[in-house]
Design brief:
Layout lengths: L6 E3 L3 H23 L1 E6 L6 H8 L6 E6 L1 E3 L9 H9 L5 E3 L9 H14 L6 E4 L17 H5 L7 E4 L12 E4 L1 H5 L4 E6 L1 H12 L6 H6 L7 E6 L1
Bound molecules: ligand LXAUTJHC.
The site of ligand LXAUTJHC has 13 residues, from loops.
Length: 235
Amino acid sequence: MSPNEHARSYADAARLLEAVGDALEQACRSAIRARGAAWLALAGGRTPLPVYARLARTAFDGRIDALPTDERCVPHDHPACNLRQLRTAFGDSPAMRLHPITRADGDVAASLALAQATLAERPGDFDAVLLGMGADGHIASLFPGAANLAQGMAPGSGIDALATVPDPLPPEAPFARISLTLPRLLRAREIHLVVTGEEKRAVLQRVLREPQGGLPVCGLLQAPSPPPIRIHWSP
Ligand SMILES: O=C1O[C@H](COP(=O)(O)O)[C@@H](O)[C@H](O)[C@H]1O
């Protein structure tokens, strides 16, 4: 299945966020119908936060467990903490249970152990994964210049999460990270890649036209036998 077939452009971010919100809501409802609960991996960063706020207003007849696709190794009350942003966006939504993948103090080694334990406790496929993308082509915290990128991308590695240091460090969030690996992210019933703005669109168009080996987003879009991957773009 080519992700091209599923790339959708929207007139504006509001429409994109509504469509992605609808898709996540449907994924949760199907999962709850089938298994009594839904299991999600959700991007941090700024782009998808309104989707989460919309999902938080939906009444679900069951539980949703979710974790961040990646986390910055900072204390949980730090403004750059993805979990903090997710908690704020979901507010006190009764259905939602958010699982941290870092320790409250942001310690890297202890956080990696926590992420691995959390993923080992819940080995099932995600019902949906929502990914953002950086203008450098990173997804989750799989960064193009990281020394251990290959470990994060390797299919069948059996590694669910890794600690990594982006190189160069992004100035807006210059921290070590914990990230789910590509093979763990791919264990999903559906994946939504949410991208806004012209700069990121140019990156996407380039990788869809001609794959750029070293870019993590390319690894996602070129993965063999992936689950359905839907690309959503708006200005
Ligand atoms: O560092 C991160 O960046 C990406 C993209 O974030 P955005 O603010 O440009 O939407 C995000 O998907 C990832 O979870 C985050 O940790």
